[in-house]
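Purpose: get a first structural picture of the assembly so the mutagenesis plan has something to point at.
Setup: four entries, given in the order below. No constraints added.
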Amino acid sequence: MKNTFGQSVCVTLFGESHGDAIGAVIDGLAPGIDVDSELIKSQLAKRRPSGKTDTPRVENDNFQILSGVFNGKTTGTPIAIVIPNENTKSKDYNYGVARPSHADYTAYMKYHGYEDYRGGGHFSGRITAALVASGAIAINALKKLGINIGTHILCCGGVYDRPFEDVENEVLELQGKAFPVLSEDSEEKMTEAIVKAREQKDSIGGKIQTAITGMPAGVGEPWFDSVEGVLSHALFSIGGIKGVEFGLGDGFANAFGSQANDKFRYENGKVVTETNNNGGINGGITNGMPITFTCTVKPTPSIAKEQDTVNFIDRENAKIEIKGRHDPAIIRRVCVVVDSVCALTVCDLLAQRYGTDVFLKGLN
Amino acid sequence: MKNTFGQSVCVTLFGESHGDAIGAVIDGLAPGIDVDSELIKSQLAKRRPSGKTDTPRVENDNFQILSGVFNGKTTGTPIAIVIPNENTKSKDYNYGVARPSHADYTAYMKYHGYEDYRGGGHFSGRITAALVASGAIAINALKKLGINIGTHILCCGGVYDRPFEDVENEVLELQGKAFPVLSEDSEEKMTEAIVKAREQKDSIGGKIQTAITGMPAGVGEPWFDSVEGVLSHALFSIGGIKGVEFGLGDGFANAFGSQANDKFRYENGKVVTETNNNGGINGGITNGMPITFTCTVKPTPSIAKEQDTVNFIDRENAKIEIKGRHDPAIIRRVCVVVDSVCALTVCDLLAQRYGTDVFLKGLN
Amino acid sequence: MKNTFGQSVCVTLFGESHGDAIGAVIDGLAPGIDVDSELIKSQLAKRRPSGKTDTPRVENDNFQILSGVFNGKTTGTPIAIVIPNENTKSKDYNYGVARPSHADYTAYMKYHGYEDYRGGGHFSGRITAALVASGAIAINALKKLGINIGTHILCCGGVYDRPFEDVENEVLELQGKAFPVLSEDSEEKMTEAIVKAREQKDSIGGKIQTAITGMPAGVGEPWFDSVEGVLSHALFSIGGIKGVEFGLGDGFANAFGSQANDKFRYENGKVVTETNNNGGINGGITNGMPITFTCTVKPTPSIAKEQDTVNFIDRENAKIEIKGRHDPAIIRRVCVVVDSVCALTVCDLLAQRYGTDVFLKGLN
Amino acid sequence: MKNTFGQSVCVTLFGESHGDAIGAVIDGLAPGIDVDSELIKSQLAKRRPSGKTDTPRVENDNFQILSGVFNGKTTGTPIAIVIPNENTKSKDYNYGVARPSHADYTAYMKYHGYEDYRGGGHFSGRITAALVASGAIAINALKKLGINIGTHILCCGGVYDRPFEDVENEVLELQGKAFPVLSEDSEEKMTEAIVKAREQKDSIGGKIQTAITGMPAGVGEPWFDSVEGVLSHALFSIGGIKGVEFGLGDGFANAFGSQANDKFRYENGKVVTETNNNGGINGGITNGMPITFTCTVKPTPSIAKEQDTVNFIDRENAKIEIKGRHDPAIIRRVCVVVDSVCALTVCDLLAQRYGTDVFLKGLN
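Result (structure tokens, whole complex):
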């Protein structure tokens, strides 16, 4: 399994940046789930470059659903989604000159020169559009079960958004935002930092924080398929994510057990925890609290500044100035991709635990 | 797949803390690998509690290899390793009263009261002994290919060890250390902090840093089976690990692209990078530089202080004072577990890429 | 994994008979394999209905390769193939009246009425076109390694073709035949039997025999992934196949060990067997002789005769006369599907054993 | 995955004929299932050689359950079962001289001489004892859901037992039989044939027929995970099985569609079929009728007659007279192994479809 993820609900990705189309096949999703074209479109719109912080390459993302949907609902058989590539400019790339921190060189070492290198080929962030379209269907399936997912930019360019506080409501609020932050003034300050980086022919990264609310307790596995393990596996498939921390994350390193432990108590007959430092997961299994985690996003590797590198075809040192069209920061666009990947992963976890019909029958 | 990990080289775990035995089955490892009992013993010794920083529960770890080894070498068929439990005291546990940040409550929600709760049952850190024994065989297989793994405690109780500098040699040095740190004075200071935490009936966590040297370029997959994804999946199966960051990790959040990007250059005819901020992985695929990552380890949940919690059988709030025998910090003992999990995962990645005989035939 | 098969080389299927398109994604195939459009077309032509023995529904099978192919060769990343449905007539189906021996009723029990029932939906033999297009790429990859696959109709309508004799050459001859039989007069007699069945508003089945030549010894696994197990798993995904027998198959039931055992001997320095009753597989692993097996194909369930059945929507007994356009025997068309499924499965077995680059580097 | 089978309920096998022990790990089975030691013992007894038709090597099969069972019930975590090897005689084997139709030569080609060759090593039928012990737990889990499995010898040595007629009751009757046949006089006649084969220093095979009753409709998948595909995959892991046919099997080859199709009708408000030629499966998915299939078992390869073969170490032709202790027919002993493998596979299919708790909660 290379481009397929999941056991009961599986997603398979395909496509290259400058090929005919990209797409995904989602298999194992229950029948009877509403496939909401408007939601798919609005999710794709969030991922699409826009405004002054992103690359000028804008695609229409005119997705087509080739199978698995009948009368507006999932049939239970594989859903194939295809998104044609339209706005491609292949002249901007010079094969052999490795863009630092990109996959040009590693692709060459893996594919021996047969890789479609144009625009990053199969490694391009473009392919995440297929994840987002697939994820939109999963998000809808989860919403019916009372499960919601939201991601905000926690920090970017030295500007910090506040962490989740009233997480149940905040995940819903975030779903409507093009620039997903919780504090009112974060958007402006972060945008400023991003624009400034672009002016300096540079790029920046940051951190994002995600919450999944409404998860039942008792989902996940003790060892290899811990919820942390499965989610991180999926998250690290997103280019640019280099760190995943659950709950308190980094903060655990300098806390005492007495501070870090989440005290249990009954609230309205339900077990809850005082704090949620463990991010909703104990021993790899959900405890019914929101799943929370942060991802570290590295600065976009494509920068306009001249960089030292190699030409791996001519086997010599080289210099590169990346022209093309690139984002000074992908962090805004990554948020919806993370939500999508989480939604697909959570659908898989639930289908494994409760059977494939859980999305029809509900959690009880 | 719940307690099985890997595609070509797979490990299956079993056992409970106070059951008859714990163990593992390793499948898919090439024939002809030396199975070095002394290495297995010394690795198990590193994981075993010892001295003043750990729990007084000490097991002999008299492992038995039931299959898959013939004349001191792997046969290529499944290797079953069993480690009997000897030093068990089951009276210390009070079923129904959930230990905060432990899996008692989540196990109950998953297994409906049928779980073997004694000593944490299947969720106990005790099971990692089976990972360590299995990993020792994998470590040996990798050593023949020139691949070495080492982990040190980067910080604990506010004491910081220095990060890797001369990583090729340092991973080898670490393999011989019972308390794996790079700076001379870290051990004493960290030990002090751990002992102090115990005296306060409390516990502490920290961060560890791992390097895998000698990896060939071109291993891993672009999307779901990125090296980051596969490694993190395996690492998060280790109880207590709540964050995994590759290369610069957290540091990416506030870096510019021009700082974070790793410049390529030729060195003795081989492509290397100036810095290794990406931790040896570009686009999910190894670039030939050492794979490096840090893991955040949460403070041991078991503390002697009284804590608020619930009794999920009586369905009421409760208080708990954890008696038993516990570590004030597991961070030292986690290092060898991380090495072991990495070794098994890297064996799997190599076998997928180069075929099952790679360990016999070598990388070239 | 539901519509995905394989571990190292994987194929994912999608599509419904009367939807927009059907297709497949092949992942894990090595880079650098020639993608021969003419071969894909000629393989699809073999599967396509033609002449008097088949359904009058003829599709153009204008396949498109959306990804994974660059400059006429595989890139090593997922190959998405889409085949639009063109000649669809959806009026011929009456939902709720279960066609006997078809999947109408079982689909309803699985998908709860959300299934796309038109033309058999996802269960239609139409989807095998995607297997054939995918298989054509795999067949080409294997040919480079000296591995060839051929299938002939062993019996149909009481007419028997002779079994393989000079299998190395016969598999090559079969590759060029539209009606794949070994004896000269079998085609005419079988055609006669098929036409007669159609005239009687009935259908017939038969047996087919397949050989895979050029397989190296030492491929496969002792227990669950025996070559028999993996191949049969793939073969039984083809609708209509109800039996798979390796080597002597049925004939083993009444043979003595002394007759059934294949004597080994050296021939030109290579181990061969006198007979090949075991179909090239001992203990689940290839022995270097051709892999041979037969498949039993049931008569096409769609017949024009009136049949007793149920209406599972109205929950009452019913009668059905299947109009539509159907084959009186699918056995001719199944042969190329079997070759395709075998090719994909063998590619997977080889990639697992020898690594993903085996198709580039060769078997030695 | 090599020695692991299943997705939601998985079994991992290990062990060699003359090693310390054989065993299995079953993972993913629901908590709360009764583990009945007496049933495990009686199932192992059925598999054990006995009387005049079998090998004189008799093992006590003193199985130990190391984990996953607490207070007599499954905990939901991995169940490790170990069966020590006791009665081993390793002198009877002469490494390098390949026993015809055995795995000696293929094991050498796969494991390069590192395999444990003693007594067939990992390829020995001895390992099926672990499948039988595991299967006994699965059989118990299914019984609670009203699902029963039974296998009888359909033919052996030219003697034919009658096929299933009153299958619901017959599967139960078979469970109590040491020599599983339906006709009264079959046992005596078959025994005679087997004894005669032994006297002639020869061996015989046969056919067995299996039924699984009580299966709900709607289980299985349309393409690659058809019930036929999944079951055959598991069945072909049993050494000696060379053919698997569902329902009418071979009989489909010469039937007309009008004869082969199973007419549906309502009976007491439930959909049933008149005949069950499809063996309870339409389009890969269960239709609620009993699943039925036959397996062809080849004659035991080990015969006392001198045979031509090769010595693959000396690389020359050779002769062999197999001394050791062997069965002239394994067909009686295979029946309980088939039941066990089916039970594990059906548990997996149900857990995938209805969730892991199905064995606790029941099918409705």
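Chain D touches chain B through 47 residues (CB under 8 Å).
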